[in-house]
Amino acid sequence: MFEHLDFTGRRVLITGASRGIGAEVARLLAELGAAVVGVARDRATLEQLVAGLPGAGHHPVALDVGDSEGWRAAADSGALGEIDGLVTAAAALAPVGPIGFYSPEDFWATMRVNVLGTLLAVYHCLDSLEAAGGAVVMFAGGGATAPQRRYDAYATSKAAVARLSENLALELAERGVRVNAVSPGFVATGIHAATLHAGPGLAGEDYFAATERRLDSGGAPARRAAELSAFLLGDAAQGITGRLISAPWDPWEEPAFQLRLREEHHLATIRRIDDQFFVPRDPPDSTG
Prior knowledge:
Elements: E1 11-15, H1 20-31, E2 35-40, H2 43-51, E3 59-62, H3 68-77, E4 85-88, H4 104-132, E5 135-139, H5 152-172, E6 178-183, H6 193-203, H7 205-217, H8 222-233, E7 244-246, H9 255-263
Parallel strand pairs: 1-2, 1-4, 2-3, 4-5, 5-6, 6-7
Helix pairs in contact: 1-8, 3-4, 4-5, 6-7
């Protein structure tokens, strides 16, 4: 599939680009010919990443994704430029522990990065995305589809991102912009330092031990999440929008599954799984 993807002449903005999944997405898209606009807080690490990308036209933008004024200044200065695609990979995991341990401010700090940061990226890139008929890829793993005990802020934020992707997909369809969310699986990145720092007492003994095992084994490959992101940004994903797709578990490379994503309204969306769908029913027949 990827030998047929060509992003030459396209410009993709990636948040969280300095490390982890964001960096892997940046590398793959650069390999496929895209010019990458990398966004992250750590300027030195970001500049090192951008300098090492193949191809030309790459550009670092150092800002905190949850900072509205930072985004506004970057947009007003022209630093963001014209964007054909957007990947929002920036994320925070802490606080780790039960409610009562962490402060409401700690909770909001993660929501600010994961949810507000995602919204701000779309907001400030929207005009150029619409002009290009572009696509947005958000990251919504870790609690988006199931509760994640002791990770209240992270799990809540990822469920919010999944719903945000569905909302924006509906709103932006008429403007020619596709929006999808990716569940990357457990990828061995620095984000899990928060769990290791918290220890088994706060993270929970079972989850802490599972995290250590997954980190030792390497977890799910970041490349797989990057490949799904590239697919969703590309022309081959036309007609697929408003979906939450698992990079390691869904057969998203198969044409039959891609057809289902286009045609089956509730597939790969956040819904209840019982028979109560909370949809309007036809009123009773009043003619007697």
